[in-house]
Model the fold of this input.
Amino acid sequence: MNSSNDGKILRLRARYQWAGPGMFWAVIEALYGNGGEMDADALRTFCVCNAMPEDFVQACIDCGLLVEEQGLIRSMRLMEELKNRREKSNKAKKSASIRWQKEAKSKTMRTHSERNANAMLERRGEERRLQEKPKEEARSERTPDELHAEFKRVAVSNQWCDEHYADKTLDQARGLAAKDRDEFLRKVRIMLNSALHERTRGLARKVFHEIAGLVNDRGAMQSKLTPQEKAARELFREEVGQTVDEA
Done:
């Protein structure tokens, strides 16, 4: 903290020769271990126990190396140094905490994105697998009327909709353009094949809602609803925040 040529140290040397700076550093070490200050009596006892002159602490005070206030003896320079170290340490901890939080957030976002991507790949793979099933298992050669009947049976039995809504969906699907109708039948096949197995039942329900959305988007399903039905569907949307098809 102080060089051997510091004016205050020189005054100490003039009184105690070269032993002065050595005894002073012993005092500084004691203060350092107590946060830069100690009880005056305790520090003087420390000096006596370490074979220092009884007046050494007072000499350090007279030279301006130490300060005595309210029964405590402290080194102002040491306390300033300790304060600077604490501030640097706190800044380093704060920076490290911010960096760790960013890394954790980035890892969480990557994990979430990877999970979504994996789920999408799994669903596409499941759709592809179901479409590529042997004909005798997937029953892909069923006629449109057979597919319509199975669509209604599966949707109603699983309580995804009632018979009235299923009939309206099928009625509207019959009026779709050729391209949209092919897409409708393709999704119906996926829904029916998925509904055959418990582990893919969730996929079947999701495809059912996609079918309802396709028919609504392409075929103006709303035009086939009565005013009372339209009002009920609008009230449901306002209360729940979703359409009947999305719920």
About this structure: The beta strands are 37-39, 67-69, 72-74. The two ends are 74 Å apart (CA to CA). Confidence is low (pLDDT under 50) at residues 135-139, 220-224. Residues 76-131 form the longest helix (56 residues).
